[in-house]
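Please fill in the sequence for the structure shown.

STRUCTURE ENCODING:
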């Protein structure tokens, strides 16, 4: 065998998996059809739990040293009411970061290389190599090079939502939901922010976060049903959407747009069975969800962590990939369901009442931001007991206010 593990795809899921496996002493090759630094269609909030992992692995410093500003506070504007607070700390991290993918992915590739993994850029996998019903390697080529076969005990598909590896092994999909929304984002200079901003409206969500080079990223998500109209004049519709978000439209018009608008309706929601004989999937190749909740990078970092642990046991002869599958699904499912709901862009009455009930209660706002950042599972908050706590207390506060007003 040439390697213990070959990882196809070298961005968040792939480079991280390769790094963690190499740190465990395994012989790892990670390949990507592009060379780094390389951008991709993705905005780039890393939620607090993802930041905690980067910190634990000693990678946060590289992100910070590159001038990526931390975002500790979030202003969540739901129209009738604004929730303003700080993220609850999570395993030593208390901020989200929004590094450009050119920076983050290159830092992860460097970390994989430093850990001892072989890295081949500009290498496209074109085929899987099989033996007796088991994947035993890949066949691919460097740009202008000839085709080579490389063998490994396990091949990991970290090759994104349109994963070649997943199709080649016929990975079963489940819990699939229709595409609900498209996304469009760009970068401004001269649009300073002191906190992250999210605007939740019927029919759209807008997110504003600071990133590298003193730029501010402004992201818009709207229902897929409006995509054909939107694409006829992207800039006009994008700015009109920002006009519906407080003074954001005015601030964006006064600022300078530094990059093109990137727009995509390619936002599937699906799970894939993440393992089989000689293969495993990680990151978007395994579970992908709408970008509206900005969880994909954080999910990929978590799943790389889970997969690296499972693979090193598996390669020591302890079957562990079924447990990886269970742990991944347990971790991601509540946020997946929440995200698919968010991407429908029609906040219901319970959600709106919830915002009103928690708005002037800092501890509840912090808890809400914990859900938003993925530090707390959505179903730990949006369940009957929590609702009773929130609405019960809100009712008591209103009752007390009324009694005080009558007595005055
Ligand atoms: C509009 C938009 C905004 C988003 N915003 C956020 C956000 O703010 N925060 C967040 O957490 N997530 C966000 N996401 C999601 C995030 O981009 C993904 O979840 C994340 O990139 C998944 O990482 P990955 O490593 O699994 O896959 P990818 O980033 O897709 O990387 C896959 C890699 O595999 C390589 N590859 C594919 N096929 C082959 C092959 N045959 N041979 C060799 N290499 C191959 C590709 O070149 C690529 O580099 C957003 C997504 C979109 C669409």
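FILLED IN BY: designer on duty
SEQUENCE:
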């Amino acid at each position: 065998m040439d390697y213990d593990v070959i990882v196809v795809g070298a961005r968040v899921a792939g480079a991280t998996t390769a790094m963690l496996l190499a740190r465990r002493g395994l012989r790892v090759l990670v390949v990507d059809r592009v060379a780094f630094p390389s951008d991709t269609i993705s905005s780039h909030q890393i939620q607090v739990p993802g930041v905690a992992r980067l910190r634990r692995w000693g990678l946060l410093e590289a992100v910070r040293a590159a001038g990526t500003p931390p975002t500790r506070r979030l202003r969540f504007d739901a129209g009738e009411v604004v929730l303003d607070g700080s993220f609850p700390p999570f395993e030593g991290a208390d901020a989200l970061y929004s590094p450009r993918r050119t920076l983050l992915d290159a830092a992860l590739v460097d970390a994989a290389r430093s850990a001892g993994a072989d890295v081949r850029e500009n290498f496209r996998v074109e085929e899987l190599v099989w033996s007796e019903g088991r994947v035993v390697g890949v066949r691919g080529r460097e740009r202008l090079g000839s085709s080579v076969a490389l063998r490994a005990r396990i091949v990991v598909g970290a090759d994104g939502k349109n994963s070649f590896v997943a199709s080649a092994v016929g990975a079963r999909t489940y819990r699939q939901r229709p595409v609900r929304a498209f996304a469009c984002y760009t970068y401004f200079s001269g649009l300073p922010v002191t906190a992250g901003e999210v605007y939740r409206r019927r029919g759209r969500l807008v997110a504003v976060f600071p990133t590298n080079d003193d730029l501010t990223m402004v992201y818009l998500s709207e229902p897929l049903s409006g995509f054909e109209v939107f694409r006829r004049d992207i800039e006009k519709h994008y700015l009109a959407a920002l006009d519906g978000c407080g003074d954001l439209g005015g601030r964006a018009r006064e600022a300078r747009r530094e990059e093109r608008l990137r727009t995509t309706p390619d936002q599937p929601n699906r799970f894939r069975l993440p393992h089989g004989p000689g293969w495993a999937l990680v990151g978007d190749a395994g579970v992908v969800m709408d970008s509206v909740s900005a969880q994909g990078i954080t999910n990929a970092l978590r799943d790389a962590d889970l997969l690296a642990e499972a693979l090193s046991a598996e390669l020591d002869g302890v079957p562990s990939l079924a447990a990886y599958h269970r742990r991944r699904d347990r971790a991601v499912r509540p946020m997946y369901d929440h995200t698919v709901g968010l991407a429908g862009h029609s906040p219901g009455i319970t959600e709106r009442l919830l915002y009103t009930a928690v708005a002037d209660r800092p501890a509840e706002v912090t808890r809400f931001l914990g859900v938003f950042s993925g530090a707390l599972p959505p179903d730990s908050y949006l369940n009957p007991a929590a609702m009773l706590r929130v609405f019960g207390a809100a009712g008591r506060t209103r009752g007390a206010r009324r009694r005080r007003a009558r007595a005055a």
